[in-house]
Write a structure and sequence with these properties.
Helix content: 25-40%
Number of strands: 14
Strand order of the largest sheet: 1-10-13-12-11-14
Largest sheet: 6 strands, antiparallel, barrel
Number of helices: 3
Radius of gyration: 33 Å
Shape: elongated
């Protein structure tokens, strides 16, 4: 009887020394994908829950805005090239006239200067046109890394706006468990401390490590957020799964 009471007392003592926190799996590399230019969505190639590879096209937008800028750049370039051609013809003619003392050297020098200025304008216009043409690649919005689509906020025919998240991509190779710890227990943890994590739905138990302690408490609950890194042991772990953290 004494042994049983002693065992119960030891068990109670061990349980009292273990702090269990409820949390959820998160991706520590979640990106909000948006287009760089405004345009109507022409195609959407992914759906929510779909796994994608790096550089895979997620959706495309039309090129009207870039087409307009390209036309303006081409017109400007053509205008400067025409002007340069005319100035060069006049310059050659004035050089011949200068040899016959029919025009002044000052007039020839002015034409030479005009030709140089127009050559500069042509180079600038060419660079601008190339810059605009380079923007066509941004009409195909691609995945920056491997991951899973957790949200899709666009449809074909809708207007894609710069800065407005169209697709949310979670990186499944950088998963962590996020939980909140009471302020009164904050002294029991340190950065790098090993803990036991459990994902009941997958029957996954593993050793994790506290990778972040967010120094910003919740004023309503007086809790601090922590993040725990862990190995998935080749299990299909997804953001949003329920998990627990046991801290000895």
């Amino acid at each position: 009887m004494k042994k049983l009471l002693l065992l119960l007392a030891l068990t109670g003592s061990l349980l009292a020394e273990t702090l269990t926190l409820s949390g959820s799996v998160i991706s520590d590399n979640q990106k909000m994908i948006t287009s760089r230019f405004m345009g109507f969505v022409t195609n959407v190639y992914v759906s929510e829950g779909e796994k994608v590879k790096r550089d895979q096209i997620l959706y495309t937008i039309d090129s009207r805005e870039i087409d307009s800028a390209a036309r303006q750049s081409e017109l400007s370039l053509q205008m400067y090239q025409n002007q340069y051609t005319n100035v060069k013809l006049n310059l050659e003619r004035y050089k011949r006239l200068l040899k016959k003392d029919m025009v002044s050297k000052y007039e020839v020098e002015n034409l030479e200067l005009a030709a140089l200025n127009l050559q500069d304008m042509i180079n600038i216009a060419k660079a601008r046109l190339q810059e605009v043409k380079n923007q066509y690649k941004y009409l195909n919005i691609k995945a920056p890394n491997n991951g899973v689509i957790v949200a899709k906020n666009i449809k074909v025919g809708e207007m894609a706006m710069p800065g407005m998240p169209a697709v949310i991509l979670s990186d499944l190779s950088d998963l962590k468990i996020s939980a909140e710890i009471p302020e009164s227990n904050l002294s029991r943890i340190t950065h790098g401390k090993k803990v036991i994590i459990n994902i009941p739905s997958l029957k996954l138990k593993a050793i994790g490590k506290i990778s972040a302690i967010i120094p910003n408490s919740n004023p309503m609950t007086h809790t601090f957020k922590i993040k725990v890194s862990f190995k998935t042991n080749n299990k299909s772990v997804y953001p949003g799964m329920y998990a627990t953290i046991s801290i000895n």
